[in-house]
Write a structure and sequence with these properties.
about 170 residues; alpha+beta; four-stranded mixed β-sheet; two-stranded antiparallel ribbon; 6 helices; about 30% helix; globular
Length: about 170
């Protein structure tokens, strides 16, 4: 037994005698800076700087059902817009009942990224399982949490009959 312990001390002393210079020579493990776009912020940095977030107003007009794919939306241009100004790499989306999903995109979270993250949670739900199946929009409450958006839902989408507004304009022009 004494022979074994002396072997261990030799091994221990050999390990402690190693210098850390080989790891300093090789710089392995740093990420490429090009994967994140310029002008896209980490939300925690924005909180430290005290920069306010602005949410894209287009999210309120989408009338999107949470259990349908964001690809089915008519307004394809709105999906490409950044969810927040300034754009962020990731943001948590908090539902009133406690569910929280995270939307991520190193080039800046778009409305589509947020809808994709939400859809992933609700795609297996039937329409009648969802109490409030339509997205009403997002709210940023810096008092509650700087790094989170609150998701608002509603019972039904607005009727797709936008023709009435046009008729009113036509009659007023005459």
């Amino acid at each position: 037994m004494s022979a074994e312990t002396s072997d261990l001390t030799k091994v221990d002393s050999a390990i402690s005698g190693l210098s850390s210079s080989p790891t300093e020579e090789k710089k392995i493990g740093h990420r490429r800076a090009s994967s994140s776009a310029a002008g896209v912020y980490n939300i925690n940095d924005l909180e430290k700087e005290g920069k306010e977030l602005q949410i894209a107003k287009e999210t309120q007009k989408l009338n999107w059902k949470l259990n349908t794919s964001p690809g089915t939306l008519d307004d394809k241009e709105a999906l490409k817009k950044f969810l927040t100004t300034p754009p962020v790499k990731k943001i948590d989306l908090h539902f009133p009942l406690g569910l929280e999903v995270t939307a991520r995109n190193l080039k800046g979270v778009t409305i589509k990224d947020a809808l994709d993250a939400i859809h992933k949670q609700f795609k297996k739900k039937a329409d009648d399982e969802l109490e409030l199946p339509v997205l009403a929009g997002f709210e940023w409450d810096k008092e509650e949490s700087w790094t989170r958006l609150i998701v608002h839902q509603k019972k039904e989408g607005a009727p797709a009959g936008g023709g009435k507004k046009k008729n009113k304009k036509d009659t007023s022009d005459d």
